[in-house]
Amino acid sequence: MGDFTVEHSIIAEIAAGYGAKILYNEKIAGYTSFNIGGVCDTIVMPGSADCIRELVTACRENGIKYYIFGKCTNVLISDSGLRGVVILIGNEYSAVKREGNCLICEAGAPLIKVCNAARDAGLTGLEFAYGIPGSAGGALYMNAGAYGGEMKDVVVYCEYLDSDGSVKRMEAADMDLSYRRSVFTGSDKVILSVCFRLSEGDPEAITGKMAETMQKRRDKQPLEYPSAGSTFKRPEGCFAAKLIEDSGLKGYTRGGAQVSEKHSGFVINRGGATCKDVCDIISDIQAKVFADSGVKLECELIPVE
Fold first, then answer.
1. What fold does the segment set 4-91 form as a domain?
2. Gap between the terminal Cα atoms of the chain
3. What is the CATH architecture of 94-205?
């Protein structure tokens, strides 16, 4: 990483030029669904694709370490925070517009906003995503899914920032969408917008299905506590939550982190949990489940430091 004063000047100038919010020495915990994460050097909240492109290009050209996040619902950020520049693509870049039976969504659009827009337009196909606490871009990045549906079922194309700084379009067939991953996972490509193709439906029926989906979440998931959703990917032929419960780990606690007593597949922040608490509890779960069942649980959370 280069000189912080130079970095500050470059990024501050771009942010000011676009009217983007910029924060210095800010704790990122409050911007994550887990409420975990230390102080970051610089956090920028861009409001346009051009601003994102200029920020990323400046970081790449000047050797500035940078991070791209959406709603921070599937990441576990270090207690020591992050050096460099954090680019939060969120509510400031979240427009949703309809074109025929398609919704074109800026990457920061919360899925709940996208689902509500689909309902209001009388378009069905996204009900499964109602209540997933992520953004359109983040959902595509990891091919988010629930209750029998996935992003790959409805995505048509996306626009993204490539490694050479150009904005390109990619069709769904080229996204390598599979269980909790896409061609974007782990790459330096930055999703800018996503197009979903839906079908005409009855608004009342759509509303009912959305309500049913949300009730299932409330009944089964510990939504009253901060978490990053399901902690582990689904092992082939079984469920992580059952393996964890069978190993006697329901309610297991390390520091402020706990295996949810409501749903063993969730590690929750009971209050004051640190990144280390969560990492420790994940390691303990993996070791005990493997010892008991021979199954290696793969963590779904993305650790960032």
1. 3.30.43
2. 14
3. 2-Layer Sandwich (3.30)
